[in-house]
Amino acid sequence: MQPDPFYNTLRLPVFAAPMFLISGPELVIAACRAGIVGSFPTPNARPIETLDAWMRDITEGLAAARAADPAARIAPWAANLVTHSSNQRLPQDLELIARYQPPIVITALGSPKPALEVVHGYGGLVFADVVNIGLARKAAAAGVDGLACVSAGAGGHTGALSPFAFVSAVREFFDGYLVIGGGIADGWGVAGALAAGADFVYMGTRFIATDESLAPEAYKRMLVDSDADDVLVSDCITGTPASWLKPSLVANGLDPANLPPPPGRNYDSSQSFAGKRWTEVWAAGQGLGAIRRVEPVAAVVDRLEHEYRQAARRFGGAPYPVHDARTAVATDAVNHPAGATA
């Protein structure tokens, strides 16, 4: 589908994906002010009073930004809600969702059904975070407005499908909003995802090493110093397959080649962070090779837009004849090198 008018509120068709222990109000507000969807997982805010304060800060901060510059393109924000049966705080989270009315709610690790009535009641959109075709079908049948298809290469809890295969399969039965994520870290990847049939891109790891993220400085530096070969997928930390930084595993006394068995899954947001292994081990997706420095969110989005416009210009030219496509691509690369101004 062509996501209009929602699409037209964005500078780029990108979600700064909700990242556990990383995304907070400052990152959400910075992303929205830069023209992309800012989001955060509600379990990041503990106890429930902290979640109340975070949602208030986001709504008031974005309202102030719009009042200060009515012509600015301020993107909508999203709350990521864990609907797994182990989350005892879900009813309280939903109460705050109803009060602060985030334009988008992204459900994860469970059925989207608990959020649908509340969010649709105030006119918001519900996106379901899914990692395979079966879950995508269930979420579509439940009546979600969009699907966030988490593919191979994603940081944190990840999927196993190629993003291209995922998009193609889901488009056979779903014509709502489609977000695709998994190793996409530059504007060229954004353009490729849209060309493949997605409406938006989920981009998480690229925003960890920003001034506004909650990540410790050592975490940000590890991202700058690492590449895709330093990522390992394992369920040993949370009980669900996730992408972890090998140097972080080693720093926590774990052998990447001999990891312990997975624990039972528990996503109860009412519990304290204290003593949880997953607070000390750091995650990343396969796109971390695009991270060269720690910088503000606005600078990242500026670069993404520049790369995206380069890619769009490339697609906007005359179609390449099939018989000499390789020659045409090579010629275009010479005439329009990656560093050229869009």
UniProtKB/TrEMBL annotation:
Could you list this entry's UniProt keywords, alphabetically sorted.
Answer: Dioxygenase, Flavoprotein, FMN, Monooxygenase, Oxidoreductase
Q: Which Pfam families match?
A: NMO
A molecular function (GO) held by this record is: nitronate monooxygenase activity
SUPFAM superfamilies, per the entry: Inosine monophosphate dehydrogenase (IMPDH)
Q: Which InterPro entries match?
A: Aldolase_TIM, NMO
Highest taxon of the source?
Bacteria
Give the family this protein belongs to, as stated in its UniProt record: Belongs to the nitronate monooxygenase family. NMO class I subfamily.
Known PANTHER family for this protein?
BLR1330 PROTEIN (PTHR42747:SF4), NITRONATE MONOOXYGENASE-RELATED (PTHR42747)
This chain belongs to the protein called 2-nitropropane dioxygenase
- Native source species: Cupriavidus basilensis OR16
